[in-house]
Specification:
It contains 14 helices and 8 strands. The chain has 363 residues and is α+β, with helices and mostly antiparallel strands. A hairpin with a 5-residue loop joins strand 5 and strand 6.
Length: 363
């Protein structure tokens, strides 16, 4: 009976907009707890204190909700129409991660998960569900690999043979017992493209990430000034970084984004740094209403923009940075002074960008 229900569930989820569905049991990732503990013990989570909290729940889904019998993992593509790597050459423009170029995926995916969850409950009166999208102590990527959606690549992100790199994950925990899928095996082979392209050498070794050097972490999660050593390496990336995703050869199989809310807003693709630096809190909130960018706030965002201005080499932007040197926010003011110094003396050793990426440990 569960086989028939599973087939109908997958069909319904696909009709609801998900590209792929897989199922595993809550105890399917026994290695996750130890890996998480090692990651936190080495301090690689940086300022993300929430990763150190409730590690028992995060490392063991069965402990998070003991009544759960199955975990349904679902993938929803957001594949961009443009090449994120090509935007890096436009130094006077900012680069925003492809997933954040329109509506906040948390809201969009959760609404779709609830729709699928309600259908499942209708088929199983008395059953229960819990839905999660990246905001609970749930390790979605290991669970998705256990459910057969893909595998965690050498950059630690999830890849799929028929999905590529560009997709969100959602989870439905349920008391309904469903037949689990076969876990996906690692398919990266000898490729190290994602490791080699990382501007900050954020991968100490294949399949390991040090978030403290990751540009996505630095631009989104990190509070306060960024280490001066890392600022030049951030280039014009002002929210997130797609380099390791965009370079992956498996993207030739990337699924098309069906949801219109993931299609990029034109004004957010390579936006003008001068205009972004001028944003006050009200203007920032208006521009990024409904966007995941809104949650980092004006100050952290403008900090990122100023680092990009400092890396632009465009002397015409020096006045913008100069005007923010007395900003009420100390971190913004610090970033502005750094940008002014970079643009005032572009020939200095501290102003020169690195000539080559540092390489992580070989496979």
């Amino acid at each position: 009976m569960s086989g028939g229900l599973k087939a109908r569930l997958i069909a319904y989820a696909r009709d609801a907009g998900f590209a792929k569905v897989g199922i595993c049991t809550p105890d399917a990732i026994p290695q996750a707890a130890d890996r998480l503990a090692a990651f936190v013990a080495e301090g690689r989570h940086g300022q993300m204190g929430w990763m150190a909290e409730r590690m028992g729940w995060r490392g063991d889904p069965a402990e998070l909700w003991p009544a759960a019998q199955s975990v349904i993992m679902l993938a929803e593509p957001y594949t961009p129409d443009h090449d994120p790597l090509a935007l890096l050459a436009q130094k006077d423009r900012g680069v925003i991660s492809a997933y954040a170029l329109n509506r906040d995926y948390h809201d969009v995916v959760k609404k779709r998960l609830k729709r699928v969850g309600r259908w499942l409950l209708e088929q199983n009166p008395g059953a229960e569900i819990k839905v999660f999208v990246d905001t609970a102590p749930v390790m979605e990527k290991p669970l998705a690999q256990a459910a057969g959606l893909g595998w965690q690549g050498k950059h630690t992100n999830l890849l799929g043979r028929d999905l590529g790199s560009w997709f969100f994950l959602g989870a439905i925990f349920t008391t309904v017992e469903l037949e689990p899928d076969i876990p996906e095996k690692q398919q990266c082979g000898t490729c190290t493209a994602c490791l080699d392209i990382c501007p900050t050498a954020a991968f100490p070794a294949p399949f390991q990430l040090d978030a403290r050097r990751c540009i996505s972490y630095l631009t989104i999660e990190h509070h306060g000034p960024v280490d001066p050593e890392l600022r030049p390496l951030m280039g014009n990336r002002i929210y997130g970084c797609d380099d390791c995703l965009a370079i992956c050869p498996w993207n030739k199989f990337a699924a098309e984004a069906r949801e219109a809310k993931y299609h990029a807003r034109p004004e957010l693709v390579a936006p003008d740094l001068r205009a972004l630096a001028a944003l006050d809190d009200t203007a920032f909130r208006a521009l990024f209403s409904g966007s995941p960018i809104k949650r980092i706030g004006r100050n952290r965002f403008v900090r990122n923009v100023l680092y990009a201005i400092g890396n632009s080499g465009a002397a015409t932007l020096r006045d913008v940075a100069q005007g923010l040197c007395a900003d009420p926010d100390a971190t913004v003011a610090d970033a502005a002074r750094w940008a002014v110094a970079r643009l005032s003396d572009p020939g200095s050793e501290t102003s020169k960008p690195p000539t080559a990426n540092a390489k992580p440990a070989p496979d």
